[in-house]
Design brief:
single chain, 113 residues, mainly alpha, 4 helices, 0% strand
């Protein structure tokens, strides 16, 4: 995600100069999503994949036929409702996962000053 756009989700950084904001955010990204976190991230992504597949399968196999929707309408519901909700949830999860690292890096930055 673009760091400049991501900064608006962390108001605790707004009192810093722009260069310091980006520096703290980039270091926090490395802490939260760096090499040492790859297995945790991979596991979360696999669980999320299983959940989205189960929701899609349930929608196609049970919900669509129960509501009398044709296959095309069920696919449209998946594209218009399920996938955007999934993307929003993923973005919120990313921001929430990054927040502790941002707070830790901010505390370290303020101690160094």
């Amino acid at each position: 995600m673009n760091s400049n756009l991501l900064l608006r989700h962390y108001p605790e950084l707004h009192h810093l100069p722009p260069e310091a904001q980006l520096s703290v955010l980039e270091k926090a990204k490395e802490d939260a999503f760096g090499q040492s976190q790859k297995l945790r991230i991979w596991r979360k992504n696999m669980v999320t994949l299983a959940i989205i597949c189960a929701i899609s399968f349930g929608l196609v196999m049970w919900v669509g036929p129960a509501l009398g929707l044709p296959g095309v309408a069920t696919a449209v519901v998946m594209m218009v409702v399920v996938l955007p909700v999934f993307m929003i949830v993923q973005q919120r999860r990313y921001i929430a996962d990054l927040r502790p690292a941002v707070q830790a890096r901010l505390a370290a930055y303020e101690q160094a000053q």
